[in-house]
Amino acid sequence: MTERKIRIMVAKPGLDGHDRGARVLARCFRDAGFEVIYTGCHQTPEQIAAAAIQEDVDLVGLSCLSGAHRYLFPKVVELLREQGAGDIAVIGGGIIPDQDFQMLTDAGIQAIFTPGAKLDEIVEWVRGHIKPRDI
Amino acid sequence: MPENPEETEKLRRIRGGDVRMASRLIRNLEDRLPEAKMAIKRIFPHTGGAHVVGITGSPGAGKSTLVDALIAAFRKQSKTVGVLAVDPTSPFTGGAILGDRIRMQRHAEDPGVFVRSLATRGALGGLAKAAGDAVHVMDAMGKAIIMVETVGTGQQEVEIINHSHTVVVVLVPGMGDEIQAIKAGIMEIADIFVVNKADRDGAAQLISELSAVLNMAPETPEGWRPPIIRIGNAFDPVPFSQGLDELAGAIAGHYRHLVDTGKLGDRMRRKTMVEIHEALRDTILEPILRDLTESGEMDRIAERLVRKETDPYTIAEEIARRFLK
Amino acid sequence: MMFPDEMLKKSSELTEKWEDEVRRAIAKSPDQKARFSTVSDLEIKRLYTPQDLAQMDFGRDIGVPGEFPFLRGNQATGYRGRYWTFRMFSGMGSARDTNARWHMLLREGQTGLSTAFDFPTLMGYDSDSPKARGECGRCGVAIDTLDDFLTLIDGIPLDKVTTSMTINPPATALWAMYCAAADLKGVPLAKIGGTIQNDMLKEFIAQKTFMCPPEPSVRLISDTVEFGTKHVPKWNTISISGYHIREAGSTAVQELAFTLRDGIEYVDDVIQRKGLDVDAFAPRLSFFFNAHIDFFEEICKMRAARRIWAKVMRDRFGAKNPRSWWMRFHTQTAGCSLTAQQPYNNVVRTAIEALAAVLGGTQSLHTNSLDEVLCLPSDHAVEIALRTQQIIAEETGAAHTIDPLAGSYFVESLTNEMEAGAWEYIEKIDAMGGMRAAIDKGFPQLEIADAAYHFQQQIEAGEKVMVGVNRYVTNNQPEIPVVDIDERVEQEQIARLQAVKRSRDGRAVRRDLDDLKAACKSGANVMPLCIAAVKDRATVQEICDVYREVFGEYRDPGLY
User: Fold this and answer.
1) N or C: which end of chain C has fewer CB within 10 A?
2) Chains with at least 3 CB pairs less than 8 angstroms from chain C
3) What number of helices (H) and strands (E) belong to chain A?
4) Residue range C57-103, pLDDT digits in tens
5) Are residues C52 and C95 located together in one domain of the fold?
6) Within a domain: B311
7) Number of C-beta neighbours around residue A95 at 10 A
8) A20, C469: Cβ pair inside 8 Å?
9) What is the CATH number for A79?
């Protein structure tokens, strides 16, 4: 048996096209030894959930800088659960004010990383919280 | 084989087209879990219905854009489609960015399309095996067409192509492709050539060089003449869709040719030869290598070779005698 | 020849002595780091001397303001005649909300307007589109029809205030609304002034608000340039932008080079496609740069920009009118330099960046608010940002004299170095067949991705510092009031939109859109058709859907 790889989807939901952070994160995850499926920008929550299931990822990382995270992030969690993939973890990043953290956490977002979060902090979080899912 | 109700259920769901189950099985195959091997044994009898198309070419050749357009073309014909998109694992970090999917995302919600990204993972023969088995999974799901997209530069990628009935090689003018195609042995396995981004400088040259090489050996062993298909700029909708239709037609035409001439069997035999080689390597060689590595004997062998106390062939004979009784 | 030989000899002598002294000193007490470089990782020397400028020719390379190559500025009078325009980018929620913010800013001394639209509008979708769900009004104003637009500019004298609109794929539709609004208010098109960003090439390169592929996008831009040249002479129909390229992670030299090369691409297209004489439209081209945190790099970048563009216009395009040689630009302080940690530090950053822009000679300036890393700016935060400009203008003396840093050994040397770096890129892109070809090959996108990753790695390694983030970190985070866009904004906007659709003449709109489609296909200028359509209350999306239908849609190739 080979070492099990962690598979992560990095996705940009909504109309915001600012993908500098998402692309830097994708490279960073690759450098940390993860397999990253990058969806590009302008994805609907439906596209992201469908792709996450097709790719059997362990984690979905969402990035949004347009303020639409309040609708988009919980929607992805909801869709994954609806389609029997509630075990796929979801984290988020971007322009997210503190006051929205509780609402996102309640909706199932397991961690939120805002500008200035160190990349190795994010990688450590993944290593500590995400295991390749069971057979 | 003892009947395990859970496994039977999984198989039933995969054959019913359950993407989540199928993708999880593919994951287990990638991770080389023994349970997965069991599952493949059960799946194998249900395969053989799909037309497997290998699509290869250098990075930047525009393969993903073509695959995306082909998905649309096949869906218009109500065919269900599976895609395995293979990208290289970084040899330094063991990680990978699998970015082919980006160009096919418009099909994400189409239940008739299943796109699965795979990393090469660098292991000896590992990719070919996992990809080959992943093809079987998609086949068992009932996909009519399965496209396997790889970067055709390494030996492994060329091997994956051997899992296909139809091999499409995508070249782009001005990228030194001409030279590479001839050197890499890709010419021998190609059934269809695509000159992509044919609006660029050097297209005519590439096509004439390609034609010249083809003229030296115009037919494949199955008696098929590989066409050269020009496809222009993806943003020029009319010429692009014309080229694309030609490609889709050639793919279907090749399959028909194989069926009509009874050569489908030859292809499938070639496929199974590859699979047997890989299965043997997996069953016989891999465990031996693992054993030697884990026990530290591999290091000792390496030392002996460095000191010229013995040679690789003698070593191999010793090991064979020891392990293969 | 800049300096007499005597002086250079003396300088060389003294510099050698100085170098010896440096060696002695650092042997005892080493430097803090091995290498000192700008935020773009351009290495900077410990000392610059006359030798660094020895190859320069004063008349050819430096000159005076108002004369080719305009290094020191476009106009002879500088800021004494008129300060740069205080132009704060703003927009939020509904047109009514934004109109209120605009009036507040004008009262507080802003001298030009700048429109921030929400994402659905930026991408050419209406507020009731499924794609707009959750996005309506969140990062800018929601505009669907002319009615919204009239509310937006309510009480604004269009013949007295210039308005900039940051809008790209739907630029024709929004500009059509502005023109239609002027018409309805009895203000002749010849009198309205402003800017539409309307720069699609940088979208493909960096910002990713795209709709149609590059070729037709550039065609629509040429339509606006032609229309502006003929009918709206005071309007800047393109704001060729580097800001976003820099925000995506490029270096300063890349920002400079890609922006100017985009400009070259547009000029080429207008000349070829529309047959206009370069002097007919070039004076109305404008640019938009980033003012990042590395103070001197930014000043030098802007000076280099002027000199490069002057040469491009005179020598490459043969423009004869000196006004065609001018580079006029708007600047925005760098959003990506701001931190969510210890947000009050952002006031300091913005101030320094704004000062760089002024010393760089910008014509117009937006200063970011301290809270923009968290949300849309609050009234208080935006007031501080505006006051920052006013303090620089009125208190610091920075505007008293033109191009104060000219002649500095460091500044002139760095300006030269950045210009050389930019020309290298420009020539490379020329060799690829132009910017559209380079974009097709992924060249600028990958340069930027590499630069962004390199910078991030430097931050991770502590080689580059962001105060409060990887150094001088504290755990107490002050409470910053956060602007909240109510969920009701979306509902109310949708209701407004639906009311307009019910009350308008649907058949007239259909006819207008058909006429627009025909123009798209025939190559006729789309602007008059857009104006007619918006007057009949066609929506932004309806117009954009015509473009999508005729020209196709561009999807993110996802280069990383």
Assistant:
1) N
2) A, B
3) 5, 5
4) 999 999 999 999 999 999 999 999 999 999 999 999 999 999 999 99
5) no
6) yes
7) 25
8) no
9) 3.40.50.280
Distances in Å between the Cα of B293 and the Cα atoms of B153, B233, B311, C113 are: 29, 51, 18, 71
Kindly report the CA angle at A127 between A124 and A133, in degrees rounded to 5? 155
Q: How many domains does chain A have?
A: 1
Does residue B99 belong to the interface with chain C, where contact is any CB pair within 8 Å? yes
Helix, strand and coil in chain B, % to nearest 5: 55, 15, 30
Interchain CB contact of B237 with C (< 8 Å): yes
Tell me whether residues A33 and B95 touch, CB distance under 8 A.
yes
d(CA B164, CA B220): 14
CB within 8 A of B238, min separation 6: which ones?
none
Domain residues for C244?
82-443
Kindly report the pTM of this predicted structure.
0.89
Selecting from B103, B106, B237 the residue whose C-beta is nearest the C-beta of C557 gives: B103
If you average pLDDT over residues C498-509, what whole number do you get?
97
| Subunits with 3+ C-beta pairs closer than 8 A to B | A, C
Please answer yes or no on whether B20 and A1 come within 8 Å at the CB atom: no
Same-domain pairing of B142 and B208? yes
**Of C559, C550, C547, C549, residue with least CA distance to C200:** C547
B122 & B233 share domain: yes
Q: Which domain holds residue B53?
A: 45-261
Amino acid at site C90: S
Subunit contact B32:A84, Cβ cutoff 8 A: no
Closest CB to C560 among A27, A65, A75? A27
Count Cβ–Cβ pairs < 8 Å, chain A vs chain C. Answer: 108
Structurally, how many domains does chain B consist of?
A: 2
Are residues C331 and C294 part of one domain? Answer: yes
Note whether residue C449 is domain-resident.
Answer: no
pLDDT in tens, A63-112: 999 889 999 999 999 999 999 999 999 999 998 888 899 999 999 999 99
Give C227-269 pLDDT, tens digit per residue: 999 999 999 999 999 999 999 999 999 999 999 999 999 999 9
B283's CB contacts (< 8 A; 6+ apart) are none
Same domain, C294 and C408: yes
